[in-house]
User: What shape does this take?
Amino acid sequence: MLSVENISFSYKGSAAVDAVSFSVQKGAITAVVGESGSGKSTLLRLIYGELDVGHGSISWEGQPILGPKDKLVPGHGYMKYVAQEFNLMPYITVAENIGAHLSGFYPKERKTRTEEILEVVGLSAYSNTLVQFLSGGQKQRVALAKALAKQPEIILLDEPFSYIDSFKKRPLRRGVFNYLKSNGIACVLATHDKDDVLSFADQMLVLQKGRVLSSGRPKDLYNNPGHPIIASFFAEYSSIDGVIYYAHQIKLVNKGGFRAVVNKSYLKEGFYLVETTYKGQRVFLNHFDFIRSGTNVRLFFDNNA
Ligand code: ADP
Ligand code: MG
Assistant: This one.
């Protein structure tokens, strides 16, 4: 188990991580979300032991994780970290970058491991390509493969799919998270993507200005966001008399309801997101059809939908 107990850290006076506590069970995935600058990367660097905690403690399986003050070279056999900026050797091939990480393995095993892991990240065809000739997204896949190659017990991923185009993101994501699950690898994942969280995370932590705004199971936070920042992470929402409604929880009715005027309809996957004005505020709803600007409509709010 990863145990993070009441840790704080400041770069120069201002707190980047402030009194954060959580734990991750073996094989579980915890997603850390929050706006840019909320402290996600700093939290991962603290867990990896790249920064010294100003306060609090971190341990894996009961063993403390030490920062640079007590351990000069960060890193541990059991823990791998994929930073937002990946560190690859440009003048050797993809396979060599990964193989370089498997020095303790017999050559045959090293080759099999490398092939297996390139398959997971979808780079088998690039095994013999020099890293310098790869795109940003492909380099990000190599960085992921390198971290996975040695079968860590826990992996820290900092926005691991940020450079991957949307054509390839979904299968890559399934490949990587299913690999983590089937190999019992625990994961702390910084992400901006609700699909990472809803489909794969066991637990989520919402950071705001370095502090934990909320935490829990993704499903529970989705159903009871409680806070506009949390709702906006998942979907378009409207706050009406202090109650948060997602766009799919607002319907149009022919009679009754609340009068609103349509501003604009946006095409989505199989439906339209319709922006309306209701009592001077913007209210979003999902509708199966396009509705012209200026149309008068009646809204029905249903947060059990
Ligand atoms: P996130 O990953 O959520 O975007 P970061 O952990 O990178 O957030 O940053 C948290 C805060 O710490 C921000 O205010 C950022 O400007 C600041 N910060 C990050 N890295 C440094 C650094 N090396 N030196 C000084 N301040 C930093
Ligand atoms: Mg970051």
In short: The chain has two domains: 2-223, 237-301. The mean pLDDT is 94. The chain is about 25% helix and 30% strand.
